[in-house]
Amino acid sequence: MRRRSSFATGPARVNPYARAGSLPRWRRGCGCIGLLAAFALMIAAAFLVITAPEAASAPPTTQTGAVTASLQPATRIAAPASDLPPGGPAAALPTINARQITSLLATPPLQQSESLLMPDERLRYDPFTIIPNRSRTKMIVYVARQGDTIAAIAGRYGLSSETIAWCNDHRLAQWLRPGDAVNIPPVDGACHTVLRTQGLDIAAIAEKYGIDDPYAIIQTPANGLAAVTPDFLAPSNTFLFIPGGEGSVITWNAPVEQDSAGNVVAFDPGSPFSCGARSGGGAYWSNPLPNGTFVRGFYAGHSGIDIAAPTGTPIYAANSGPVLYAGWNNWGYGNTVVIGHGPYSTLYGHMSSRNVGCGQTVAVGQIIGFVGSTGNSSGPHLHFEIRYLNQPADPSATTGIGW
User: Fold this and answer.
1) Whole-structure pTM over 0.90, yes or no?
2) Rounded to whole angstroms, what are the CA distances from 342 to 262, 266, 281, 316?
3) Torsion sign across C-alpha atoms 203, 208, 209, 212
4) Is residue 161 within 8 Å of 302, Cβ to Cβ?
5) Which of 85, 188, 197, 199 lies deepest, with the highest CB count within 10 Å?
């Protein structure tokens, strides 16, 4: 009888020398995974070896943990060729003393962001660079908008109202409209338009505006003058800026007649609205529009004060005296009345209608007209002037006027 093979009664065994195709699938899968893991570990180890930073040597410490300075630097410090010893570079190594090392250790290191970035990169990553204010040297032009005034524009640019008035058409000082081009000088001063017929050289122009040194005009970049002398005659219509210069009060320079005492007896005698020679007047001062609102004051570009009120509001005589002028004014005041008070005179402009005329003498507080917006006016108001010997004065500085 044949013996049964021992392989028949026990569990199935795998022949290690059998072909790979006869191995179970799960063992073949485990082998592949193991090979892949070994390959990944090998790549990771190689990467760590390549990218590992150089080990920094720590300075020696004492038993108390304090860092001690080594008298031999960790890295070699190159010395200039002229300082090398005669024996050559290898003859001696440069060293630094203990005081220098202590100073180096006490100096805080650069921040990482500063030390790693190149200079141009630091600028690129600094979006909040502050540019300091630079003084302006040229004349600029501002276009007026609704509600603008000479005083408001001057304040916006840090200038005086006089500067704006002196460097622009005199009409703008009385009536500024939206869309008007306003010259804005770089600093306070005055402006002058050259007329060759006047024969004024730079020195004479400087003197006219109260400037001692004519080179202040020549060296001003806004004027574009180069290598000229104070006796230079600029071409006609040359527009010059005089830094620090002072012009005259911009006003209606109507001719007047005065008596031997200096009293104004006639105002603009060549006009059809002049009332002829009248003398007398003068008592005390009173507010011409007590129910109005003060809107603009006196300065060199504005020869009176402006008081706003609704159209038709009564206007009162600020002092007593004869009517010297009653009618239309082409300089911008519109419907105007002028009253004489001895050496003084008062002017009331932009009236909607007049309540007095030539040949009349008025008393203080008498109604002489009504508020309007005639002439160069942007709204109903009274333009009120006080003139002494025909020179405008600040009404606000006169006792009794109330402003």
Assistant:
1) no
2) 8, 11, 6, 18
3) positive
4) yes
5) 188
